[in-house]
Recover the amino acids of this structure.
């Protein structure tokens, strides 16, 4: 039999793709490194040459997912014809829509991160998420301050507070999302939390009333519909 030698980047992508397929099919918890190795028919040495663990696989997949979202947001932030509040709204909506379109990944990463054994992985993921979005949100807040739309003193500090606040809401909503496997109505509870989040951020920014509209009922209905259809 002729041995097939693949380029390093090609092999790495192949491993990531297969891992993602197995995570979707069997769940993160039920997918072992051995299952990935067996599915690809590669040696353990070949796998560990590229990845140290299953957690590193998920970390790399998360980085790719986040990069795709950041790319969408970046074009909005750099648009000179959009004011700050519209940029902020569109930033949240673009991110939300991308998550709806990739519901399988959202459920996979939520299951993985909120396992009792993955507290450190969750901390690293959340910290990285904040740091990735921070420069973009700071830019929007600086623009809003310059335009007189936002009444804030320090755009960077404000952006960090808003993102950390959002992460705390996401922590609780992740648990609701996992519960929605048996009760899709839990997504309605998530909606109520995000409505409170919107009003709170609006006040933190000193923005005009009802100007911050990152989420609406239609988004959560779309999320629920996409999730139910994949069950």
């Amino acid at each position: 039999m002729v041995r097939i030698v693949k380029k390093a980047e090609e092999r790495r992508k192949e491993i990531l793709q297969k891992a993602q397929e197995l995570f979707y099919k069997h769940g993160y918890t039920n997918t072992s490194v051995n299952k990935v190795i067996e599915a690809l028919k590669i040696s353990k040495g070949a796998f560990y040459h590229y990845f140290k663990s299953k957690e590193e696989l998920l970390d790399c997949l998360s980085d790719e997912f986040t990069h795709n979202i950041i790319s969408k947001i970046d074009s909005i932030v750099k648009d000179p014809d959009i004011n700050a509040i519209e940029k902020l709204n569109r930033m949240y909506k673009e991110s939300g829509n991308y998550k709806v379109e990739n519901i399988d990944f959202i459920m996979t990463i939520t299951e993985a991160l909120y396992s009792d054994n993955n507290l450190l992985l969750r901390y690293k993921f959340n910290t990285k998420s904040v740091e990735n979005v921070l420069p973009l949100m700071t830019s929007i807040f600086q623009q809003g301050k310059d335009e007189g739309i936002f009444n804030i003193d320090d755009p960077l500090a404000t952006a960090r507070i808003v993102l950390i606040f959002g992460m705390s809401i996401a922590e609780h909503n992740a648990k609701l999302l996992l519960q929605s496997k048996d009760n899709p109505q839990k997504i309605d509870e998530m909606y109520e939390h995000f409505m409170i989040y919107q009003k709170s951020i609006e006040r933190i920014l000193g923005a005009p009333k009802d100007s911050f509209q990152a989420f609406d009922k239609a988004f959560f209905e779309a999320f629920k519909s996409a999730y139910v259809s994949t069950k």
Remarks:
- The mean pLDDT is 87.
- The chain has two domains: 1-51, 53-229.
- Residues 20 and 61 are 8 Å apart (CA to CA).
